[in-house]
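Researcher: I'd like a candidate sequence for this fold, 244 residues long. If you have to choose between options at a position, lean toward the conservative one.
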């Protein structure tokens, strides 16, 4: 793929408000957050459980589930208004420009397709010219990079045949294989042992050098924040209370 030299502003979030409209009334999950993310930058988001970290991330990639709704503010990615995009355009965006690594791997792995199939399809959605053989080869390389052994066998397995930690690694591979411009990683390494965590962080940084992607890293692990983040935002009750 072409690796364009990119610099400057990648993502701009301005005064974002997200609410859930429940039978009991409106729950304000995100109450006006603003930040910029540049190419080549890693921003950490920390904050207690329920402070709105995941909801904010889902809003950016257009995967906010009903009854959740963006009720105010703007999200601009590479100069484009994300909130104005249609469902189809958002699917396209997720195949190409943005990838998310979820807290729960089953959110993004399809139980009825093999691991290999899903990785190959993810890659082909992004790079239409890639052959099936080349895609399979790159899928296996990516699985090895995230610390999965026996990759030929794993390619033929279904998500439920893997352990939780392995599923998480597969999801990380899925997120990285398309070389996204923006990667949102929501607690991606908590279920993994320390060696693999370090390996995956290394992998993300390596890939970042090549693709200049911006990364939003949601975590409880302050060691990780210190290790890889250029800046950190602290969320509390739907607001960013501290940036630096
Ligand atoms: N489906 C829903 N219906 C109603 N309210 C919701 C729903 N999903 C999330 N919320 C609200 O949004 C708030 C933020 O949730 P979110 O998942 O973003 O928290 P988080 O910061 O990611 O927490 P954690 O660290 O536990 O993952 C919650 O406190 C909750 O009140
Ligand atoms: Mg969360």
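Model: Candidate sequence:
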């Amino acid at each position: 793929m072409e690796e364009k030299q990119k610099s400057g502003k990648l993502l701009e979030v301005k005064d974002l408000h997200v609410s859930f409209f429940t039978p009991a009334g409106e729950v304000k999950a995100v109450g006006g957050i603003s930040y910029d993310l540049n190419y080549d930058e890693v921003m950490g988001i920390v904050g207690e459980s329920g402070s709105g970290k995941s909801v904010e991330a889902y809003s950016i990639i257009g995967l906010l589930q009903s009854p959740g709704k963006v009720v105010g503010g703007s999200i601009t990615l590479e100069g484009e208004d994300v909130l104005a995009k249609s469902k189809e355009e958002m699917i396209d965006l997720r195949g190409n420009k943005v990838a998310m690594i979820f807290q729960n791997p089953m959110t993004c792995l399809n139980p009825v397709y093999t691991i290999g199939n899903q990785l190959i399809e993810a890659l082909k959605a992004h790079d239409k010219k890639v052959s099936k053989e080349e895609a399979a080869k790159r899928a296996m390389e990516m699985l090895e990079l995230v610390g999965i052994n026996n990759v030929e066998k794993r390619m033929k397995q279904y998500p439920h045949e893997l352990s939780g930690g392995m599923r998480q690694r597969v999801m990380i591979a899925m997120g990285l294989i398309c070389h996204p411009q923006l990667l949102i990683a929501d607690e991606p390494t908590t279920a993994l042992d320390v060696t693999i965590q370090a390996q995956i962080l290394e992998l993300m940084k390596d890939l970042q050098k090549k693709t200049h992607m911006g990364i939003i890293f949601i975590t409880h692990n302050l060691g990780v924040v210190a290790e890889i983040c250029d800046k950190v935002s602290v969320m509390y009750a739907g607001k960013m209370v501290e940036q630096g």
